[in-house]
């Protein structure tokens, strides 16, 4: 299998990708890989404008929430679908709490937090599809990917003519959500294989090459 590089090689990946019934729950179980390490949610209102501005280079601002976005991409690309789901859900919940104007101003590079909430929700659905694939639930895979496509259609309509959000191409994301709905499910594996990459391709940011030595 080809080597998958990292966006955040400075952050160690978990020892296993959580699958229900196979591994300790990462947060709730004392032996979980992230026990007593809750996901960092948005806590400083003064940073809200910086976090939820649609900068074409979201990694250019050294704040935890944007670095968390990059780490979530690493988690997803490396087969940690439950963990990626959790990381993006933190951003989704933060975006939902921020009031935003009803209209979008593409020329100013601004987007309502509500639009980014839909965007993060679509990424959550992609990760949820990976979770269902690990569980051998093909119907769940197709359902989550279908919902991801619906959300991406809403986002694309609202941000047009812009084609990207936070460095991800919306058309490519939607293609991903359609292309892999009927992917053959991977074999169910036990603890002898702590991580399993389901999708044959990765989510890649524009203008920021993957780097670093994979875990």
* Fraction in helix: 40-55%
Please describe the biggest sheet, giving its number of strands, its sense, and whether it closes into a barrel. 2 strands, antiparallel
**How many beta-strand elements?**
2
Low-pLDDT stretches: 39-50, 102-110
Which structural class best describes the helix and strand composition?
Answer: mainly alpha
Mean pLDDT, all residues? 76
Describe the strand arrangement of the main beta sheet, using strand numbers. Answer: 1-2
Strand content: under 5%
Which outline best applies? globular
Series of secondary-structure elements, N-terminal to C-terminal: HHHHHEEH
Q: State the separation between the terminal residues, measured CA to CA.
A: 14 Å
Q: Please work out how many helical segments DSSP would assign.
A: 6
In angstroms, what is the radius of gyration?
Answer: 17 Å
Q: What can you see in these coordinates?
A:
With 215 residues, the protein is an all-alpha fold. It is built from six helices and two strands, in the order H-H-H-H-H-E-E-H. It has helices spanning 48-51, 64-77, 81-96, 113-134, 138-159, 170-179, and strands at residues 164-165, 168-169. Strands 1-2 form a two-stranded antiparallel ribbon. Helix 2 (64-77) runs antiparallel to helix 3 and helix 3 (81-96) packs antiparallel against helix 4. The longest helix has 22 residues, at 113-134. Mean pLDDT is 76; it is low at 39-50 and 102-110.
């Amino acid at each position: 299998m080809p080597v998958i590089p990292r966006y955040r090689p400075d952050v160690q990946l978990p020892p296993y990708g959580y699958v229900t019934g196979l591994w300790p729950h990462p947060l709730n179980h004392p032996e979980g890989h992230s026990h007593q390490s809750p996901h960092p949610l948005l806590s400083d209102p003064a940073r809200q404008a910086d976090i939820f501005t649609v900068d074409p280079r979201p990694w250019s601002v050294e704040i935890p929430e944007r670095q968390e976005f990059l780490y979530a991409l690493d988690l997803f690309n490396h087969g940690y679908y439950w963990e990626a789901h959790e990381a993006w859900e933190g951003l989704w919940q933060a975006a939902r709490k921020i009031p935003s104007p009803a209209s979008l101003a593409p020329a100013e590079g601004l987007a309502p937090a509500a639009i980014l909430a839909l965007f993060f929700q679509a990424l959550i659905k992609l990760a949820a599809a990976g979770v269902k694939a690990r569980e051998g639930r093909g119907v769940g895979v197709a359902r989550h990917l279908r919902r991801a496509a619906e959300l991406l259609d809403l986002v694309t309509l609202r941000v047009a003519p812009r084609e990207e959000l936070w460095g991800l191409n919306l058309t490519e994301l939607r293609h991903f959500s359609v292309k892999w709905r009927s992917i053959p499910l991977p074999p169910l594996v036990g603890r002898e294989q702590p991580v399993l990459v389901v999708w044959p391709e990765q989510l890649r940011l524009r203008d920021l090459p993957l780097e670093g030595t994979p875990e």
